[in-house]
Amino acid sequence: MGQKVHPGGFRVGVIHDWKSNWWTGRQEFAAYLL
Predict the structure, then answer these.
(1) Domain segments of the chain as ranges
(2) CA 19 to each of CA 1, 2, 9, 33: distance values in angstroms, whole numbers, following the listed order
(3) Which residues pair with residue 12 across a beta bridge?
(4) With a cut of 50, which residues of the chain have pLDDT below it?
(5) Residue 18: what pLDDT?
(6) Are 24 and 33 in contact (CB under 8 A)?
(7) Which are the contacts of 8, defined by CB distance < 8 A and separation ≥ 6?
(8) Which of 23, 28, 30, 31 is 20 to 30 A from 5 via CA?
(9) Cα gap 18→25, rounded to integer Å
(10) Are 18 and 12 in contact (CB under 8 A)?
């Protein structure tokens, strides 16, 4: 049996963006940290 590719992960960067963002700018980082 072949392995299936997850359709959401396959389209990241082409059609969709990531569902979560792990990085932010310096100004927002302090606000999110608290």
Answers:
(1) 1-33
(2) 29, 27, 10, 20
(3) 16
(4) none
(5) 65
(6) no
(7) 16, 19
(8) 23
(9) 17
(10) yes
